[in-house]
Design brief:
By secondary structure, this protein is an alpha/beta fold. Helix content is 38%, strand content 22%. Helix 1 (20-33) packs across helix 2 (49-62), helix 1 (20-33) crosses helix 4 (117-129) and helix 3 packs across helix 5 (149-158). The protein binds magnesium ion.
Length: 456
Amino acid sequence: MGALFGTNGIRGLANVDLTPEFAAKVGVSVGTFFDGGEMVVGSDARCTSPMLLSAVISGLTSAGCKVYNAGMAPTPTIQYTVKKQGVDGGIVITASHNPPEYNGIKVLAGDGVEISREEEKVVEKIFFEETFRRVKWDQVKEPSILEGVIEDYLASVTKHIEVEAVRERRFKVVVDPANGVGSLTLPRFLHSLGCKVYVINAELDGRFPSRPPEPRPENLGELAKTVKALGADLGVALDGDADRAIFVDETGNIHWGDKTFALIAKFFLMKNPKSTIVTPISSSSIIKDVVDEYGGSLVFTKVGSVDVSHKMKELKAILGGEENGGVFYAPHIPVRDGTMTTGLILNIMAESGKKLSELLSDLPVYFIKKSNVKCPNELKGKVMERVSSEFEGLPKETVDGIKAFFPNGSAVLIRPSGTEPAIRIYAEAKSEDEVNDLVRKYAALLERVIREASAI
Ligand code: MG
């Protein structure tokens, strides 16, 4: 049996891998999994999203589901809608930050969180064995359109914001939603908080003509320049489905998500000491240092937002985050949400009375470097076993690959890729030379071990 789900749901090239026939088959499989229950569906603004959404709705209704269509909206908005409507589950058509020719299908449980890895296996089994639930012709229900989805969602986010404190500051904010669905929520949310809002790249356009939909620093030059030129307090870049947010400070500096998440964790722990913070094993030690310093306990998960959400649910944790700008705030919903994250940052700026650059300059500094070494999939197990003996006697985390922490504060994570024939190295250290040395050392070690393993 093949695999349908990757790290982030079902992804592929639209109209090549993800054809309407394929999407309809996923729809009927998911409808079977939910036993013909009630489902909320929606999509991002990609060119192929309406096509795939129609196909998924056909499949779901064929299985007897009652479908409520939330239309085009950010992924976290659709996730929140599933939870609020009290339905059995949901489906989102989105490929998040992938290039425009891609699309994807996310399957949600009744609380709006993606179904678990075990549940994905059940859906896969139904899909490949074609054991579909098909209802009689007079049991097929007509889909309904849901109204007021964005309003309800923004009302929930706003509940967790110090509205008066933020309003008083009259923040000037520039938003860059990458021509994605974040255009529908974030500017409106900021207006409601009394901010002076400027938008760039805010027309919905599934071709992503202005910049790639991944908010990586190299894609955010226009935002950084605009923040500086306008003398704004903050710049916010979203990914294509608005679940991740990357921030630019008032001097035009772009900050990667590990720093902003660490800032949110710090202020959260100052108010809620001893809380549990959840983050993937690939997150930088900035998070670990801040959580240690402010008396929280840090729990590592496998790499993937689904794993963070499920660990948070299991531990009843309130805050989770990823280095890529995904922050999970459970009192709203334990999934990553770019609009909620922006609200949390504004809360901190309002309460502290400090500028974002000042707030972030208080955090520990690490140099981070990543590398990949090619490794055939069948050798990964053997190679990882051999590598683990290199780290004897050091504190380690082994939830996904091996992360070893060295006494001088540097760390290295060696992790087999889930999607490619490669092993990934993530290194971090207090100096640039040191991080380069670490990557060189462990890349050479891996190459040697892979050579030895393939010679046997
Ligand atoms: Mg995304």
